[in-house]
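Hi Y.,

Following your request, here is the sequence exactly as I used it, all 376 residues.
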Amino acid sequence: EFTDLSSATTLVDNLTVKNGIPEQVLNSNRPNILILVLESFSSYLIGPLGGDSLVTPHFNRYIKEGILFSNFYASGTRTDKAIPAILNGYPAQPAQSIIKEPKKSQSLPSLIKILIDKGYNSAFWYGGEINFANFNSFVIGSGFRDIITKNNFAPADYNSKWGVHDHVLFKVLADSMRIVNEPFLKVVLTLSSHEPFDVPMEPVFAGKDNMTKYKNSVYYADKSLGSFLDWAKETDWWGNTLVIMVADHCCRVSSDMLIYSQDLFKIPMLWIGGALLKKGITIEKLGGQVDIPITLLNQLGISGSFPFGKDLLSDKSNSFAFYTYNEGFGFITDSSAVIYDQKLRKPVLKEGKDPDSGEKNGKAYLQVLFNDYLKR
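Below is the corresponding structure, written out as tokens. Let me know if you'd prefer a different format.
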């Protein structure tokens, strides 16, 4: 407890203020929605986000025809923390993972359920083993009509550790989308760029160290992604489709990277597709995965209650990002950054102007989150 709950709640309500008018960026209020969750795509590997310009040529190419959210953060450090943030607008908790507790996760507001209620045909695609971290019950509980996992693919296509490689996943996904029932909602989770970075391609970058292996795996994942998107652009359904590409989390490949560093939470989010009204633009407002449900629903004119998120396209929403790591949280604004370590009971980083108010807001946000989590 940092302060009394009612003060903390007031601070959070002010942070996530919901009034304001969203900038309309779609040309349809019932587009098909394809959410591609890209395993371990870190901003530090993406050229237009200030990273390495050679690792993701296809993603970089698609940035030119989409809406890039350039100051965007992962909620936590693992996939099981990312998925409730992306699909339920629920922030990662430092030491827990709500997905592992079905009673709690079932009670969360759900982007998927809201869209299914509006007539969307839903599917979840993952080329891996879905039984990690209670993922299976979470996906079933979200109401997806079709659930495709490793078991739906030929064992000959399995890689050494996680499941089928991304090029196989995207090829089978494409085959399944030659005929579609619209409007569709598909969530696809990639896996090849997860360590041990084992990919079926000759290395493009020379070296045996972890960072080089990681770069090669992301290069391969990007190539598989690019081929799929190039195919999708030629389909009949592309014209009414919004593709949301977002990383699940970053990748810490060396011990030099501080576990709480902002660079380890900064990820890409890119919207592309024929349903976009505006293209080639960048949204610089700070935000994160928990902002996706409310930002998307406001574009569709559908109401939903996601108390921890804000509309990244609204003129009145605040520019901030909150993330957690095992020992604490980061709270970033346009003018300050605070990283607070709960074990040490003090900030490990405090910079910019008025970081005190950032610390106060971050503590309030975590307190309200934790209180909500315990009550569920």
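Residues 87 and 267 are 16 Å apart (CA to CA).

Thanks again,
Q.
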